[in-house]
Amino acid sequence: MRDTASYFDGIPEIRYEGPESQNDFAFRHYDADEVVMGKSLRDHLRFSVAWWHSFAWPGGDPFGGQTFERPWFGDTMELAKRKADEAFEMFRILGAPYFCWHDADIRPEGETFAENLSRLEEVVDHIGGLMEGTDIKCLWGTANLFSHRRFMAGAATNPDPEVFMFSAATVKACMDATHKLKGENYVLWGGREGYETLLNTDLRRERQQAGRFLSMVVDYKHKIGFEGTILIEPKPQEPTKHQYDYDVATVYGFLKDFGLENEVKLNIEQGHAILAGHSFEHELALAASLGVLGSIDMNKNDYQSGWDTDQFPTNVPEMMLAYYEVLKAGGFTTGGTNFDAKVRRQSLDPEDLILAHVGAMDCCAAGLKAAARMLEDGKLEQARAERYAGWDQMQDLLGSDLGTIQERVLRENVNPEPRSGRQERLENLVNRYL
């Protein structure tokens, strides 16, 4: 560690004090050691801090530039290492067990790929040193293949094969770095894997390029013995209108098309689910039903804005419904809860960055505990089972044919009456667990 004072000096380590605590710098719901459904909250939630929003984002938005002045901002290797030092100090204060990163978050941009690679390897060695003697782990790494102007027409889907080459080389470097840091997943973010107009786009060619690129990633995972999970994150309208990785259903169809549905799982973000016109719990339930639920990026959108605002979660009922689907699916294995969220551009103080995570961790913990109560009680699942009970005795219908079914309808004088879906009753039931 450096000899200079930390950006977070004076901020205490956050501890659990219970729901009645009036201390801003304390957890009210997240007791990491509390056991819920046979596992500690630490192991259920697997919280991760996102390097990009917490340490690399300057506070800009579409209408204004930088508002944050962090002491590690700059393009030197010295400042990149200072950034890492400060990140680990924040992880310690929060008791966060994991972190996530893009290559561009942790190393300065070089003039060439070789320089990027050298800088990445140097910073990864520094981060590895910071991890020694701690329980802090890497949840996943990934490559930023969207910010630099070279990626303006995509990475894997770019019409220029040299961009494809640069992207493939960058992903290999990031996979090597993730493997070295013992990361538990590797994520592919297709931030520009889409198109703005069909007038200059060969859609079929681009999908084929993306499929081949992902196959190379899977092949390399096995070549180096990486035991983590390969994840894709659906990204609708971010930033192109037509994304090849729009939502869970779209990505699953893509995986099936290229025979990768048993090799790749999904990292699902709440904000992206909403941009795709879905609820977060819908995307989680669908991924679980298809066997591809891997991990989650936890944030929320401003429902009055039409773009991805990446706010920290503060809505416990939303978290309850999300973690209900996670718990139903058996919980996380290699995945976790990554705070892909950023403080507001007016939140300038070090305390703001800490307290945003404290509130989010409490919100998620409260939601998960409510979800566990609902799942253990079983009333919601009982009501769902009762609604479909008729199928338990009539599964043979699905193996029948139209002619046989018609004969049965005539023979048994089948004339069904509509039955209530009881939605309001179930909404009232769900609210009892909060």
UniProtKB/TrEMBL annotation:
<feature type="binding site">
    <location>
        <position position="340"/>
    </location>
    <ligand>
        <name>Mg(2+) 1</name>
    </ligand>
</feature>
<feature type="binding site">
    <location>
        <position position="269"/>
    </location>
    <ligand>
        <name>Mg(2+) 2</name>
    </ligand>
</feature>
<keyword id="KW-0963">Cytoplasm</keyword>
<keyword id="KW-0413">Isomerase</keyword>
<feature type="binding site">
    <location>
        <position position="272"/>
    </location>
    <ligand>
        <name>Mg(2+) 2</name>
    </ligand>
</feature>
<protein>
    <recommendedName>
        <fullName>Xylose isomerase</fullName>
        <ecNumber>5.3.1.5</ecNumber>
    </recommendedName>
</protein>
<feature type="binding site">
    <location>
        <position position="310"/>
    </location>
    <ligand>
        <name>Mg(2+) 2</name>
    </ligand>
</feature>
<keyword id="KW-0460">Magnesium</keyword>
<dbReference type="GO" id="GO:0009045">
    <property type="term" value="F:xylose isomerase activity"/>
</dbReference>
<feature type="binding site">
    <location>
        <position position="308"/>
    </location>
    <ligand>
        <name>Mg(2+) 2</name>
    </ligand>
</feature>
<dbReference type="GO" id="GO:0005737">
    <property type="term" value="C:cytoplasm"/>
</dbReference>
<keyword id="KW-0859">Xylose metabolism</keyword>
<keyword id="KW-0479">Metal-binding</keyword>
<feature type="active site">
    <location>
        <position position="102"/>
    </location>
</feature>
<comment type="similarity">
    <text>Belongs to the xylose isomerase family.</text>
</comment>
<dbReference type="GO" id="GO:0000287">
    <property type="term" value="F:magnesium ion binding"/>
</dbReference>
<keyword id="KW-0119">Carbohydrate metabolism</keyword>
<dbReference type="InterPro" id="IPR001998">
    <property type="entry name" value="Xylose_isomerase"/>
</dbReference>
<dbReference type="GO" id="GO:0042732">
    <property type="term" value="P:D-xylose metabolic process"/>
</dbReference>
<feature type="binding site">
    <location>
        <position position="233"/>
    </location>
    <ligand>
        <name>Mg(2+) 1</name>
    </ligand>
</feature>
<feature type="active site">
    <location>
        <position position="105"/>
    </location>
</feature>
<dbReference type="InterPro" id="IPR013452">
    <property type="entry name" value="Xylose_isom_bac"/>
</dbReference>
<comment type="subunit">
    <text>Homotetramer.</text>
</comment>
<dbReference type="InterPro" id="IPR036237">
    <property type="entry name" value="Xyl_isomerase-like_sf"/>
</dbReference>
<feature type="binding site">
    <location>
        <position position="269"/>
    </location>
    <ligand>
        <name>Mg(2+) 1</name>
    </ligand>
</feature>
<feature type="binding site">
    <location>
        <position position="297"/>
    </location>
    <ligand>
        <name>Mg(2+) 1</name>
    </ligand>
</feature>
